[in-house]
Amino acid sequence: MPYTSHDLAKRALGYLQLRQAGQEPAPEDIAGIQEYIEPLVEQLGIGGVAYVGDTNQIDGSFFLPLAKRLALEAAPEFGQPAADIGTTQDLEAVLRALTASKSVGNPVKIAYF
Fold it and tell me: The organism sits in which domain of life (predicted)?
């Protein structure tokens, strides 16, 4: 099931403990964290970490690590300490592993001329 940037923002706010379970976050918090989504996605793509494509069609397989990475990026704006580089690199390694191309295990057929 694909997720949207709104879903991503809500999950990241949950990681930042800025929303209670079952409650909608404040609209200004959603708007504030959504400002980080496009630049973060571009940064991850340029750095070769992960390619997201459409931020309103986020693949479920790396939705949670991406939300955690977004929370780390936006933490200082919400009054929380900035994440250390090791934590950031660990999450990026997870994203890189999840988006790496995997072999299907079938041999390639060759046609000789």
Answer: Bacteria
